[in-house]
Amino acid sequence: MVAKQLSIFLENKSGRLTEVTEVLAKENVNLSALCIAENADFGILRGIVSDPDRAYKALKDKHFAVNVTDVVGISCPNVPGALAKVLAFLSDEGVFIEYMYSFANNNIANVVIRPSNLDKCIEVLKEKKVDLLAASDLYKL
Amino acid sequence: MIWNESIECMDRESLRKIQSIRLRKIVDYVYHNTPFYRKKMQEMGITPDDINSIDDIVKLPFTTKHDLRDNYPFGLCAVPMSQIVRIHASSGTTGKPTVVGYTRKDLSSWAECISRAFTAYGASRSDIFQVSYGYGLFTGGLGAHAGAENIGASVIPMSSGNTEKQITLMHDFGSTVLCSTPSYALYLADAIKDSGLPREEFKLKMGAFGAEPWTENMRHEIEEKLGIKAYDIYGLSEIAGPGVGYECECQHGTHLNEDHYFPEIIDPNTLQPVESGQTGELVFTHLTKEGMPLLRYRTRDLTALHYDKCSCGRTLVRMDRILGRSDDMLIIRGVNVFPTQIESVILEMAEFEPHYLLIVGRENNTDTMELQVEVRSEFYSDEINKMLALKKKLAGRLQSVIGLGVNVKLVEPRSIERSVGKARRVIDNRKI
What we know:
The structure holds two protein chains of two kinds.
Chain A: E1 2-11, H1 16-26, E2 31-38, E3 42-49, H2 52-61, E4 65-77, H3 82-92, E5 97-105, E6 108-115, H4 118-127, E7 131-132, H5 135-140
Antiparallel strand pairs in A: 1-3, 1-4, 2-3, 4-6, 4-7, 5-6
Chain B: H1 5-8, H2 12-33, H3 35-44, H4 65-70, E1 84-90, E2 98-103, H5 104-121, E3 128-131, H6 139-150, E4 154-156, H7 163-173, E5 177-180, H8 182-195, E6 206-210, H9 216-226, E7 229-236, E8 241-247, E9 254-256, E10 261-266, E11 280-286, E12 297-303, E13 305-306, E14 318-319, E15 324-325, E16 330-332, E17 335-337, H10 339-347, E18 352-363, E19 366-375, H11 384-402, E20 407-411, E21 426-428
Parallel strand pairs in B: 3-4, 3-5, 5-6, 6-7, 18-21, 19-20
Antiparallel strand pairs in B: 1-2, 7-8, 8-9, 9-14, 10-11, 11-12, 12-15, 13-14, 16-17, 18-19
Helix pairs in contact in B: 2-3, 5-6, 7-8, 8-9, 10-11
C-alpha cells in the first residue's frame, strides 16, 4: 500500500547516475522502478528499491542528498482506459498527483503515485477497490 | 580644454600651500564638529595645533568603511541635518549601506570637479549628455547629471537599463556624450548594431565611463565598436562620487582633484606612506567637505600616483589604473558587493548550509554571478517544484540585499570545497 521511495538530488554532471547505481550494486540492492525529473541545473532521481533502509544508509554514507518519501503503489490491467479510470477516482475526490511513474509487465501495469494527500488517496483507492500493491511486493518486482 | 586652469595647472608649490591651509582648516573643523574624530585624535594625543602643513597629514587617524558602518547612518556628519541637502548611499560590508550626506556647498564642489572632467574630455555647452548611470542612491546618475548641467550642456536623465529606449533617444535626440559603466557601453554597442540603425545617424562622439574597473582592452573595444573616444572617470561615494578623478586627452593616468580630495598611497599592511610612484592603497582626505568630511579614508583601491606635469598642461597628480583591491569587495555591474553580504543572507536561511561559492563572470559584456550553495539535507525534496522554490527564495532575498540578480545553483551535499584555512568563496573569471 504505502511504499518507501528514495529520491536523490543530483547535479547535472556526467557520471553521477553511474555512481548512484554502483553504490546500490555494491550493497546488493535491486532497483525495481526508477524515474528522473530534471531541469537545467539538476535532476531528482526517484526509485523503488529492494531494501530502502539499506540503500538509504549506503547513499547517505556517501553524502548523497537522499530522502525517503511515502508513495502509493497500485496495479491495474494493462488495457486501454484502465489508468484513466483510476485517475478519475482520485481527481473526483480532489486528490492531486505531484508525480507518478509506471511500468507494464505483460497483462499488468504497475503505477507508483506520489499524491498530494497520502491518506486520502489510499482511502479513495480502497473504497473504489483498486488493486493496491503491498510495499513488499513493490520492492520485490 | 581646461575648466579651471588656475587650479588644474597650478604649480605644485602653490597647490601644496592651498592644501596645507585647507588641511589645517578641515582638521580644526572635524575636531570641533565630528565627535568621532575628536575622540580618535585625543586617543592619539594630537590636536589641530599639531597640523601645520599637508606633510603633517601622516599624523592623522585613518577612517575605514567599518567606521562608516559603526556610525550608521549620520554619525560622521559634521553639520546638523538642516544643512544636509542630499543623501547618497552605497553597499556596505554587511546589510547596512554606507551613507554620505552633502551640504549645498559639497554638491557644488562635486559639480565643479565633474565639470573639470567633462571639459577635459572636450565636452562643452553644445553637447548633449545621455546619462545612463543609475539615478538614485548611487552617485553616478545625479553626479554626472549635475556636472553636465554645470558646464551648460543639455542633459538627458536616462538612468540605467531599458536599452531599446536608450538607443532610440540616442538616435533621435542626437546624444553626443554617453555616461555609463564601461560594460554597459559595450552592451549598448552590440544592441545598437543589432538595431540595424546605421552608425552615421548617431552623433555620439565620446563617453565618460567609470564605477567599475576596466582595462585598456575594454577601452579599445568600446572606442572601436561605438566609434567614440572613451574616457575614465573615477570616484567613490564616500569621497564624492564620480569626478574625484578624470582622464585628460593624453589618457596618461587619471588626474585627481587634489585641491578637494587629497590623495596618499600607503602600504596596506604597515599603513606607512610608500615612495612616490610605488603601488599601494589609495587614501583620501577631504580638504573642503562640510557635510561629512573624512580624514585619511582607506579606499582599498590599489594604485600608484605620479606627480610630474602631464603633457596636457595639468599639474594635478595622475593616478594609474586601479590594479585591484586590498579587501574582498567585488564591483558587479557597478554595484559594490561584499561576499559577507551573501554569506549573511545564506546564514539567516535555515534551508541552506553555510558553504557557498560565488563565481563571477562576464557574458556579452555584462557581469554575471552564479552562487553555488548546498541545501541542508532535510530540505532536499523529491519534488522539482519545491527545489525550484528554494532557489527562487534565495535569489529573491539576495536581490533585495545586494540589489542584483544572482543565478542560484543548488548543488549536492559536500560538493563545495571545505578548507581549514581561509575558504575560497569567490572565483572571479572576468578578464579585467
